[in-house]
Automatic annotation (TrEMBL):
GO annotation terms (biological process): protein localization to membrane
Keyword Transferase among UniProt keywords: no
Location in or out of the cell: Endosome membrane; Golgi apparatus membrane
Ranges annotated as spanning the membrane: 279-301, 342-368, 380-399, 411-433, 445-470, 491-509, 529-558, 570-588, 600-629
Domain of life: Eukaryota
Entry keywords, A to Z: Endosome, Golgi apparatus, Membrane, Signal, Transmembrane, Transmembrane helix
Nucleotide-binding is among the record's keywords: no
Membrane-related topology note: Multi-pass membrane protein
Signal peptide residues on this chain, from the entry's feature table: 1-27
Organism field: Cucumis sativus
Name used for this protein in its record: Transmembrane 9 superfamily member
Family from the record: Belongs to the nonaspanin (TM9SF) (TC 9.A.2) family.
Pfam family, one: EMP70
Length: 640
């Protein structure tokens, strides 16, 4: 009776929570952003997205510093993913008219007080960069990295200033107060439409001068005058940041026609000279698969020979001939210790696997756009929630196979264990960001929405999946389990659990570390990265490698008459996460210049979350590979 009542209540809870879910992600656009056609003279809205620093990893709001402000600051409508990432945009005083060139437009004049000067100096010292967008295209600064003939590289945003020295002891700070924008457009003759396909900037530091009284934007600047066509390089020098200094902010706008059409406008931003590194990573992974496949083929041939010989034996000779993995057939499917925890993590691993594959497929099909990281995060969140059904189903089926009787208990553990760990860590990290007054702080209402999505949708779906999974027939074991435990022989040093676990994660990690370095660089050094095709190929290679390594080590363990393979198969494959975390620490020391304690804690916290999720994912892959392997070999032998 209780089950009949609980299902309608859960269904009602899910229906109500769906309303909250769609309200919170109302700006999510599954089919990408449509092109906007402009005409000459149309207003172009330049928006600011805040300031970031690779040295502090603490983004701040653009208007938290003494910059020019519009009459009214307005936040754009955001989806839940943008809010969680702190990827927000606001209007700015930089105004442009389509196809109308502008020279030396005055934005505003600011006189620095002591506090404002110190804030600017601190941000320049920490190498903060300003980020803007136009028509959902990020502002980039084209730079020449190598020789003049090498292609330009695009740097997201521009540094807000630079630091110089007048002497060995005295440092001076200069601010980029003049921005020279270049807006590239594509003109479609057939449709008679004009679309924006590029947004670039060259920043300058200019100590502007003017004669007479200050007349706001009508002031005539002697250093940069649209009438006299004075070039900015003829100014009296860079603009210094000091208390009492007057700073005049200006900008130019130039329009350039481009051959790049609108669907291809992101190609230049996402272009990379490191394609060979991606292919090297894939070829390296394929070589690993070939090696492990060769070894696995030998193992399969040996198993086939053992099974053939064993099944041909006479009944009276069988007891004398049986050795190795065949000897422990009565214990190999004995439920492991802490079987509930194993069921929970395997179910959660299936949930993560579904989320990752779904996100990759949507991105490869072009249903996700790189212009909004919020869409990617929102998609992952939605897939995570709906894959809760699979998590509950898988954990309940394993739980029933391990002789479990209370499906509600395993459903509750599956719904709470992994999300609670992530939510607690995320809350602590968000508190650290709040203490530093960072702009990426997730508001309290958004944290509450996450909690409601978890409790109102994800958890009930886990219970529904568990109910369905527990009603299914119990997974049959190919052999009967003995009532008494068999004694496990003393193992060699190389079959020690620690040794096996460390060896098991080494080869799979070698197949992903190249893509991992690109992902870490994109995340922590604020670079564009949108190569889900490479990601999918590498992920498939990782999956195959984890499965083959787990099967090989499981076979060796069974041959040594050690039947405790359940947890060993999971942890062996999941040990890739250990190498991931160690690599992230190495990356931190070699590639990042973080010195603040708070920033270090944030980095370690986020990488711990990523490593834990990676452990659950790869562990699940290894577990299912070994589960399938043991069922196949033991169901092929005719045991008495």
């Amino acid at each position: 009776m209780a089950s009949r009542i609980s299902l309608p209540v859960q269904t009602l809870t899910i229906a109500l929570s769906f309303l909250l879910l769609f309200h919170s992600v109302h700006c999510f656009n599954l089919f990408g952003i449509r092109p906007v056609d402009f005409k000459k003279g149309d207003d172009l809205k330049v928006k600011v997205k805040g300031l970031t620093s690779t040295k502090t990893q603490l983004p701040v709001s653009y208007y938290s510093l003494p910059f020019c402000r519009p009459e009214k600051i307005e936040d754009d409508a955001e989806n839940l993913g943008e809010i969680l990432l702190g990827d927000r945009s606001e209007n700015s005083p930089y105004v442009a008219k389509m196809l109308e060139h502008q020279l030396c437009n005055i934005v505003c004049r600011i006189e620095l007080d002591g506090e404002g000067a110190e804030e600017l100096k601190e941000k320049i010292e920490d190498e903060y960069m300003v980020h803007m967008i136009l028509d959902n295209l990020p502002l980039v600064h084209p730079i020449q990295i190598f020789e003049h003939e090498s292609p330009l590289a695009y740097q997201l945003g521009f540094h807000m200033g630079l630091k110089g020295y007048y002497s060995e002891e005295q440092a001076k700070y200069f601010i980029y107060n003049h921005l020279s924008f270049t807006i590239k457009y594509y003109r479609d003759i057939q449709s008679n439409s004009t679309r924006i396909v590029g947004f670039e900037v060259k920043p300058f530091s200019i100590k502007h001068e003017y004669n007479g009284k200050w007349k706001e934007r009508n002031t005539r600047l002697s250093t940069c005058d649209p009438i006299t066509k004075v070039m900015v390089m003829n100014s009296d020098g860079p603009q210094m940041v000091e208390e009492g200094k007057e700073i005049i902010f200006t900008y130019d706008i130039e329009f350039q026609e481009s051959d790049v059409d609108w669907p291809s406008r992101w190609d230049a931003y996402l272009a990379t000279r490191d394609d060979q590194m991606h292919w090297f990573s894939i070829l390296n992974g394929l070589e690993s698969i070939l090696v492990t496949s060769g070894i696995l083929a030998v193992i399969v041939w040996r198993i086939y020979r053992d099974i053939f010989n064993y099944n041909d034996l006479e009944t009276q000779d069988r007891a004398q001939k049986v050795t190795g993995w065949k000897l422990i057939h009565g214990d190999v499917f004995r439920p492991p210790c802490n079987s509930d925890l194993l069921c929970v993590h395997v179910g959660t691993g299936v949930q993560i696997l579904g989320m990752i594959l779904g996100t990759m497929l949507l991105a490869i099909l072009g249903l996700l756009s790189p212009c909004s990281r919020g869409d990617l995060t929102t998609t992952m969140l939605l897939l995570w929630i709906f894959m809760s059904l699979c998590a509950g189903y898988v954990s309940a089926r394993l739980y029933k196979m391990f002789n479990g009787t209370d499906w509600k208990k395993i459903a509750f553990k599956t719904a709470v264990t992994f999300p609670s760990v992530i939510y607690i860590i995320f809350t602590v990290l968000n508190g650290l960001l709040r203490a530093q007054k960072s702009s990426v702080v997730v508001p309290s209402w958004a944290m509450f929405v996450l909690l409601l999505l978890w409790i109102g949708i994800s958890a009930p779906l886990v219970f529904v999946g568990s109910y369905v999974g527990f009603k299914k027939a119990t997974i049959e074991k190919p052999v009967k389990t003995n009532s008494l435990h068999r004694q496990i022989p003393r193992q060699s040093w190389y079959m020690n659990p620690i040794s096996v676990v460390l060896i098991g994660g080494m080869l799979p990690f070698s197949t992903v570390f190249v893509e991992l370095s690109f992902s870490l660089t994109a995340t922590w050094l604020n670079q564009l990265y949108w190569f889900f095709g490479f990601h999918l190929l590498v992920f498939i290679i990782l999956t195959v490698t984890c499965a083959e390594i787990s099967i090989m080590l499981c076979y060796l363990q069974l041959c040594r008459e050690d039947y405790r393979w359940w947890w060993r198969s999971y942890i062996t494959s999941g040990s890739v996460a250990i190498y991931l975390f160690l690599y992230s620490i190495s990356y931190f020391s070699k590639s990042l210049e973080i010195t603040k304690l708070i920033s270090m804690l944030l980095y370690i916290g986020y990488m711990l979350v990523a490593s834990y999720a990676f452990f659950v994912l790869t562990g699940t892959i290894g577990f299912f590979a070994c589960f399938w392997f043991t069922r196949v070999i033991y169901s092929s032998v005719k045991f008495d």
